[in-house]
Design brief:
The complex is a heterodimer of chains A (about 220) and B (about 290). Chain A is about 85% helix and about 0% strand. Chain A has about 220 residues and is mostly helical. Chain A has one domain. Chain A is globular, with a radius of gyration of 20 Å. Chain B has about 290 residues and is an alpha/beta fold. Chain B folds into 2 domains: about 220 residues, 3-Layer(aba) Sandwich (Rossmann fold); about 60 residues, no CATH class. Helix content of chain B is about 35%, strand content about 30%. Chain B has a 6-stranded mixed beta sheet with strand order 5-6-7-3-8-9, with helices on both faces. A 4-stranded antiparallel beta sheet of chain B has the order 11-12-10-13. In chain B, a hairpin with a 2-residue loop joins β8 and β9. The chains are: A mainly alpha (about 220), B alpha/beta (about 290).
Chain lengths: ~220, ~290
């Protein structure tokens, strides 16, 4: 898997190195100048999306056909993509946490540096889960269709919340009940969230392996 | 293991493309070079992909180096397609590291570097900056660097200048010298096959028309020029195809010695692989 991992890293950096540096500097500058540390929460997501471009690179050079002649299994090829995503999201998470905490220290206000750091970790975990879902969709439908479908699902999700709020489905009583449950059973909720956070990439990996193993090039 | 590749009754259907391989048999004996010929869309690449396990066959059996096609057997095979399928921004140095990470102990870095020097492939140059010929040389270097027992090449010499092609053909002949290494070479450059192939397999519209020893193939056909009346005297099964053009009638015939006895006045010419292919294709285009 080392070779597969290197291939994607070299490919992505070769294409996007300057663009990536520019974006990271821009995000840091904007968050500092405008005192908007939460802006940095975009970083893990952005880096996760960059890794999806490795699929486009593979398609453009017909790498998948060639990879079938190499001593790597379908499982390793899929695993390489998931590891790639995690290896980009994690530095993005650390970047968001460190720079965000620095912004909070530079501009003392409502947000504590420690809160910023912890929130970055949560955002990073959510990014890993969402990108895992996107990876599975990409293996199934290709990069373009997967991205479009993912955004449609996202929009659909927020539309449901918005419309639900309009018709009173998401009333205060419901939210209060949830918050009360969390306060009453914090460990249970934390373990539950952790389990979901771990299960999502595992399920997506398993599905992706099955999808990829059945592909012909 | 007598044969590097054994294919028996291979069938593969593409319903959307209205194309299928039908009961294809093919053998690549150890220590030999088999040339695979056929017109565009005949099924050569499909056959190679089935042999490598890239495509799932609908029916038939394939033995690749004594085993089923899969990561374990494919690791002993060097494959070159019609282009270098590497991301455009990779350099040869990066490609070496990538493949070393995959082949592990089988990879020979010094051999790869030696081949790159021999092919004059600059280390820090990106794939996108290579010409087509240089990309083919890079593919060959990667295919040879892990000391494969079998080479499978799909149009590997296309885009190369005659000097380099000659050099690579010599490399192929060296490759099989120990009788343990083999090559399956699909190519439209039939003159290359005439130089190096031990046998030739012809795929036409998804079927194997023949696999014959190269010399025996070229001796078993002849191109004759004679009148239609003279041609009518020959048994139908001796005639592959006949065509008329501005300068007369040309016919590809089997059993040239017997034809010579029947038509002593006909003008006989050698039938090379190109000619044999053209006439077989012409026959079925009717």
């Amino acid at each position: 898997m080392k070779g597969l991992f290197l291939k994607d890293w070299y490919g992505l950096l070769g294409m996007y190195k300057k663009n990536l540096l520019l974006v990271l500097v821009l995000y840091a500058a904007l968050s500092m100048i405008l005192n908007m540390p939460f802006f940095l929460f975009m970083t893990p997501w952005l880096l996760g999306f960059y890794t999806l471009s490795s699929f486009s690179l593979d398609e453009s050079c017909r790498w998948n056909l060639y990879a079938r002649t190499l001593p790597v299994s379908s499982r390793q090829i899929v695993g390489g993509k998931f590891l790639l995503a995690i290896s980009w999201i994690l530095p993005g998470t650390i970047y968001a946490g460190v720079v965000g905490a620095a912004v909070c220290l530079l501009h003392p206000g409502e947000t504590l540096a420690s809160d910023m750091a912890v929130s970055s970790v949560v955002v990073g975990v959510i990014a890993i889960d969402m990108i895992s879902i996107l990876l599975a969709m990409t293996f199934r439908a290709g990069v373009e269709k997967a991205r479009s479908l993912f955004f449609l699902i996202f929009i659909g999700f927020f539309l449901i919340i918005f419309l639900g709020g309009q018709i009173g489905m998401l009333d205060d009583a419901g939210f209060v009940a949830v918050l009360a449950s969390i306060a009453a059973f914090p460990l249970l909720w934390a373990l539950g969230a952790l389990a979901v956070a771990i299960l999502i990439p595992v399920i997506c990996f398993s599905l992706s392996c099955r999808i990829y193993a059945n592909k012909e090039f | 293991m007598e044969n590097a590749i054994e294919v028996r009754g291979l069938c593969k259907t593409f319903a959307k493309k209205d194309f299928s391989l039908q009961n294809l048999d093919l053998t690549v004996p150890k220590g030999s070079i088999v040339g695979l010929i056929g017109e565009n869309g005949a099924g050569k690449t499909t056959t190679l992909k089935c042999i490598l396990g890239i495509l799932r066959r609908d029916a038939g059996e394939i033995q690749l180096l004594g085993g089923e096609p899969g990561p374990a057997t494919v690791s002993q095979v060097g494959v070159v397609f019609e282009d270098a399928y590497f991301p455009a921004t990779l350099t040869t140095r990066q490609i070496e590291r990538i493949l070393r990470g995959m082949y592990k102990q089988d990879w020979d870095s010094s051999r790869f570097e030696g081949l790159c020097r021999r092919f004059q492939l600059t280390e820090g140059k990106m794939v996108k900056d290579f010409s087509r010929g240089m990309r083919m040389k890079l593919s060959l270097a990667t295919a040879l660097a892990h000391h494969p027992r079998l080479l499978i090449l799909d149009e590997a010499t296309s885009g190369l200048d005659p000097v380099v092609r000659g050099e690579i053909l010599d490399m192929f002949l060296d490759f099989i010298q120990d009788e343990d290494h083999s090559i399956l070479l699909s190519s439209h450059i039939t003159s290359d096959l005439e130089k190096v192939a031990d046998s030739v397999a012809y795929i036409h519209e998804g079927q194997l028309l023949f696999q014959k020893d190269k010399d025996e193939l070229m001796e078993s056909y002849a191109l004759i020029q004679c009148s239609a009346q003279d041609l009518a005297r020959l048994p139908a099964e001796w005639i592959v195809h006949s065509r008329e053009h501005a300068f007369g009638r040309e016919t590809l015939v089997r059993n040239p010695e017997q034809v010579r006895q029947q038509l002593p006045n006909a003008v006989f010419g050698k039938a090379d692989i190109d000619t044999i292919m053209q006439f077989f294709t012409g026959r079925d285009a009717k």
